[in-house]
Design goal:
elongated; 156 residues; mainly alpha
Length: 156
Amino acid sequence: MTSGHDWDTGEGLIRIHDPAEVDAAFERGNGHLGTAVIGLAFNCSLEEASPRIVRAMGLSDVHQRGFAFTAAGAAARLNGALTPELYAALRAEGPGRLSIAVNAIADTLCFVPFRDLPLWLKWWKVESRIRDKLETWRLEFVYAVGDVRKALRRKS
């Protein structure tokens, strides 16, 4: 246990504030690095946390990778911005609904001003709004047809 942080259990890592300690943990191959980068997102500047978050996004443990994307979302919430490296990592993972990055991208779209988003993310936001609107209209049509069918059955 170092500085109140237990790398074996993950306890206390959410309070980590020393990027060098996280770098050393990467070099040692410690677990819970995704949890640690969430701590960095909360306790360090975006510039200090960003390279470690990006590195954790490449971890082999899918749960810790997920926490790294959570850290990216938290960074967007706290800073109203992301670094070019974080945007590139989110883009590489993909913005689709089945992507591990979907929540981080949603947080980015909510908390980063539209004018500050990279072009690919602006297009994604516009496209997803159009897709959502079309799905709404489709469902309204399906429900209306169902209501008409019910009304016709009652009459006959």
